Amino acid sequence: MKYFFLSILVLILFSVVKQSYTQEFWEIVDMPEGVGIYDIDFSLDNQLYAAVTGNDGARIIRQSLNGAGWDTILSPGGIIGEILIDNYQNIYAFGNHRLYYSFDQGTTWNSQYLDSISASVSGHYKLDNGDFLLGTWGGIYRCDSVGNGGSYIFETPHYEKFNAFIYNADSSIIYAGSTNFPEEGGGIYCSYDDGFTWENTALTGSYVSSLSINSQGDLFAGSQGNFLLGYDGVYRLLNGADEWEQINPYEVVSSIAIASNDDIYLGCTLEGWPGGVRLSQDNGNNWITLNDGLINRNIKRIKISRDNYIYIVESGNTNTLYRSIDTIYTFLPEPQDVPKPDINIYPNPIKDKIYLHVAINSSITGNCRFLILDAKGEQVYSERLEIFHCKQIDLGFLNPGIYYLIFNTDTQQIISKHIKL
Prior knowledge:
Layout: H1 2-21, E1 26-28, E2 36-42, E3 48-53, E4 59-63, E5 70-74, E6 82-85, E7 91-95, E8 98-102, E9 110-113, E10 123-126, E11 132-136, E12 139-143, E13 151-155, E14 161-168, E15 173-179, E16 187-191, E17 199-202, E18 206-213, E19 219-226, E20 233-237, E21 245-248, E22 253-258, E23 264-268, E24 276-280, E25 288-289, E26 299-304, E27 310-314, E28 321-324, E29 342-346, E30 353-359, E31 368-374, E32 379-385, E33 390-394, E34 401-408, E35 413-420
């Protein structure tokens, strides 16, 4: 019975990890011929919407629910650079110095000219009261949910480009990321009063392209370089900390997406070889490359759908849209009403050796079995153990990658995901 359960576990683990490590991670999404993609978003029923341009001009198109084709739902005649679908199914699109909006899922549309806006919208954030903060070259523009009452609430003396916004509910701070090519300005701006006033607080001189936040309130900033035209990579601000730390200096980052399980995905450009997509499963401490299946690795956008697929848009005259072949993760059910032993398996990531430490308690009886599965769900190590306080195991023979470490007793099971460097 125990071995039957283990076999089922292997199948479950394989379903969890196979999508990240198949030979081909990405597949191309069929698009209308000749279109270039500017942005994508997903409705609550997980329909895919895209802002595109091509031989038929700028359009917003929607993929049919069966994925068989695309319908044009808006043809504004000018470029749409940003698209947003909120939790009420309202669709917003920004382009041509206008806000386009539909409150009936794209059946009918209205638009409002964004008075006095100086350039195209390069970033957006919708406040709880419905107002928009719009990033442009030169400053931050604010208007209501249908584009009325718009004006610049913050203008920079260095004509910076504001690319991204993120809100930290724990601190009630809105963060904005900007690019400025001279040394002065650029980096991270903060607003402590719901977006009305702003101050430059960190990463001055960095070309901040993207911002994201995980479930623990840790902030991540992606940079496309700095005023010295060097790589800049990824910065992290741990929840409650005061200082940003550089955690990956080797990438040119265009976009960040964080999954519900806090896996971090980076879209990187070819300015930082080799471009493509990076994944961290340990809060940004280590990174692996997910480029299998990509033709061109110059990534512009990266987003996660509501059914847990990851999409990337490549830069280029005819931008290609990719989707992960499988869902990027699934949830393992938590065991119910089963006491867990006090077990530590460390370090993580692994270099050569791991250490198992188990505090013996009355719930642990008999022998233990220690297994290691690789990313394909295949067993690469197995050992039967007596109940112990501490044991060292040499894993220098393992190749770099993701592994699942399983501690099995007659009544309990612990699964721990580790990275081998």
